[in-house]
Give the backbone structure.
Amino acid sequence: MAGMPKTLLERATEILHELESKNLSLEDATGKKKIKEARDFTSFQLNIFDQTDINLRKAKDELLSMDVNQMTPIECMMALLKIRKILDPE
């Protein structure tokens, strides 16, 4: 997962282990999974922007504030450069 923050990967691993342990407990005596109950645990989607990284929040805010339909190609390129500098300030 190149480029993903380490904290995001660690949290994803924790969630994966939790889901796997719950999934294992959803088997009946014959080893078949209880499909109805399994669906309850997989009814959500994580968002990469829902985290504490301030740079990602700034980049998201910058993207949401843009009206790309009103921007010239050069303005779009400059906006992308600005977002890139937010994400990789080096």
